[in-house]
Amino acid sequence: MDLSNPYIQAALQFLAIFITFNVVLMIVAYTVLAERRILGFIQGRLGPNRVGPGGVLQPFADLLKFIFKEEIVPDKSTRFVYFLAPIIAVTSAMMTLIVYPFGPRVTLPYFGQVELVIARFDIALLYVLAVTSIGVYGIALAGWASNSKYSLMGGLRSSAQMISYELSLGLSLVGVILMSGTLDLYEIVEQQSGWYGFKWNIFPQFIGFVVYLTSAIAETNRVPFDLPEAETELVAGFHTEYSALKFALFFMAEYINMFTVSVLATTLFLGGWNVPGLALLFAPGSIPFAVFSVIGFFVKVFFFLFLYIWLRGTLPRFRFDQLMAFGWKFLLPVALLNVVLTATLVWLGVL
Amino acid sequence: MVPLSWYLALSAVLFTIGAAGVIIKRNAIAMFMCIELMLNATNITFVAFSSFFRDVTGQLFVFIVMTVAAAEAAVGLGIIIAIFRNRLSLDVDDASVLRD
Amino acid sequence: MTILIFLLLAALTIGCAVAMVAQRNPLYSAIALIGVFLGMAGIYVTLAAPFIAAIQVIVYAGAIMVLVVFVIMLLNVEEEVRRPIRLRRLVPLGVLLAAIFFAEAAFIIYFVETSAYNPPPATQSNVGLTASVGTGLFTKYLLPFEITSLLILMAIVGAITLARRVSTLEGGRTRLRATEETRSQTSAD
Q1: How many domains does chain B contain in total?
Q2: How far, in whole angstroms, is CA A55 from its chain's centroid?
Q3: What pLDDT, on the 0 to 100 scale, is given for residue A210?
Q4: What is the average per-residue pLDDT within C17-44?
Q5: Could you tell me the residue range of the domain that residue B52 belongs to?
Q6: Which of A48, A106, A342, B98 could form a disulfide with A290 if both were Cys (CB 3.0 to 4.6 A apart)?
């Protein structure tokens, strides 16, 4: 088989994308289960443990339930937009998955040297920002098209929230970009290898990391920033009028977004697939090195997912005016300060 | 390969549609969107020339056009909201007198 | 292959643009315009300008259009009413002028197509990459860049001044009611 043939390369790429999507969907399904179990543990109860041993088949039971629920479309809804909204939400969430590097360069039999990333290109980080910024429409249009006051309030709140926090999110990444001098995620990760983990961007960019994490939680509409779907005020927010699989799509989009945010945090701040000291055990480029690197990558990602669940079990919700004031009057100035500080240090040659 | 003239033709068609929209539309927000379309149509020409002549200047122009469009969006939508507050309508024919 | 992609994207862009003008519901127009912007981002990619493509999506689709959709939702803008065409007699003249214009444009494009200079294809250049765009922006074109930042500052101040004049929608409504009352009074007098 001639691997340099562009058609075969394209086919391999499609296969890789297909596998990635499926793996991520499985991870998402089990994140939901883990969330319910861990929340149960935090609140001193058991959580779902009936389907399969210890509840491991619960996600599939949920899926079946979603499929067999009745599809209810509100009478006065705007049909086209109503069906378009969940599609936009899921598509924009899944499109970013292809750019993240999840492992180092490895020499495989038959394939030769392979970089463990599906699509590597010059503007990967901007691509992530661009695609995630489309996701706002899913929520805003869902709120508008449902023709219900709770949905509209939820949609308006979420678009306001996402626009506000996108600014500090973007600015918190500028520090990393300034330090590494590239937008290519693979190269950003490679620059963080060595020094037993002390080259990770979290150390010089700690302010940026905290700002990123806070605004990322706000971007994904999770506790303590889950105002768009504050159940005590707005029933279920923008997806009040959605049922069955359309609701499942929104639900999936939210968890995929959590996953991508965690992956981006790992890639940019926690050194991606770099595991401290692994180069002492195995030769870089060998298969065990790659396997342990990939495992290290996923451990970091799962840590962030656990953090999300932990926060949900611990923190109360913000009020909407508090949320806006926090975003604009605290987070944004801190992010700007971080950019100025980093730029000065890079200019002086310290970083 | 796609010849340069195709890009220019696409740009011309989009610009014409935008210009026609500004003339036809009576809703202030719709007119605003048509103006954005016209700005974008010119951007295609800039990028096409820039990449066919291997000169980055055209893309920098696009960058600056985009910032101008963003500024225009902020002020334009502010004006539209102000008009709506005063007249409760976005029809530009209703906003034909300067005093309220 | 590139030609096929270009044709698809161009069809998407033009189709969405026509839909935008044809729609009378502003929200549908906005959705169509988002389609136009995404299609254009694709066209920039075929022109080997990925940076501009990403910026196009971030600025236009991700910021400006979100703002527009937000305003449409906030003001709950109603559909435009269809109204009779004034100046009906000028329509044939308009059609004639448009036909002449299109004939001219087609003529010119035909000649550009067959002209002696045929620029080389652009897929393999590094002009559109982030590094070259950034270098150009911060060296040769630093002054225009700074001026645009000043422009944005002015826009921020302007938008805030415009938005804070009357604190609520209610203010406008009461004022409108007051003017209507005075009008009806004067006509009654």
Answers
A1: 1
A2: 25
A3: 92
A4: 90
A5: 4-87
A6: A106
pLDDT at C171: 54
Q: Could you tell me which chain C residue has the CA closest to the CA of B45?
A: C44
Mean pLDDT of chain C: 79
Q: How far apart are CA C104 and CA A188, in angstroms?
A: 52
Q: Give the CATH number for residue B77.
A: 1.10.287.3510
The chain-wide mean pLDDT, for chain A, equals: 85
Compute the average pLDDT of residues A187-197: 83
Beta bridge partners of A108: A112
For C152, counting Cβ atoms within 10 Å of its Cβ (0-12 exposed, 13-18 middle, 19+ buried), the class is middle
On average, the pLDDT of chain B sits at 85
Please report the ipTM that was assigned to this predicted complex. Answer: 0.90
Can you give the pLDDT at residue C189?
A: 47
Sequence spans of domains, chain A: 1-68, 75-348
Cα A160 from Cα A150, distance rounded (Å): 15
The two structure tokens encoding residue A227: 């105002």
**In a 3-state reduction of DSSP, which class is residue A107?**
strand
Residues of C within 8 A of B50 (CB-CB) are 47, 49, 127-128
Query: B62 to chain C: nearest residue by CA?
Result: C52
Residue B91: per-residue pLDDT: 77
SS3 assignment for A270-335: CCCCCCCCHHHHCCCCCHHHHHHHHHHHHHHHHHHHHHHHHHHHHCCCCCHHHHHHHHHHHHHHHH
Give the torsion through C-alpha atoms of A318, A324, A326, A327, to 10 deg. Answer: 120
Residue C67 contacts A where some CB pair is shorter than 8 Å: yes
Q: Is C49 left (phi over 0), alpha (psi -120 to 50) or beta?
A: beta
Q: Output the CA–CA distances (angstroms, integers) from residue A345 to A205, A207, B95, in the order listed.
A: 11, 14, 53
Residue B100 clears pLDDT 60, i.e. is over it: no
pLDDT in tens, B42-72: 999 999 888 888 888 888 989 899 999 989 8
Q: Is any Cβ of chain B less than 8 angstroms from the Cβ of C71? A: yes
Q: Which residue has the tokens 């034909």?
A: B96
Q: Name the residue among A301, A348, A335, A122 with its Cα closest to residue A209.
A: A335
Distance CA A310, CA A323 (A): 20
Give the three-class secondary structure for B27: strand
Q: Is A270 on the interface with C (CB under 8 A)?
A: no
- Considering only CB atoms, which chain B residues are within 8 Å of C119? 4, 52-53
d(CA A333, CA A323): 15
Q: Between chains, do B36 and C30 touch, taking CB under 8 Å as contact? A: no
Question: Contact, A226 vs A254, CB < 8 A?
Answer: no
Do chain A and chain B touch with ≥3 beta carbon pairs under 8 Å?
A: no
Interface contact C63-A137, CB threshold 8 A = no
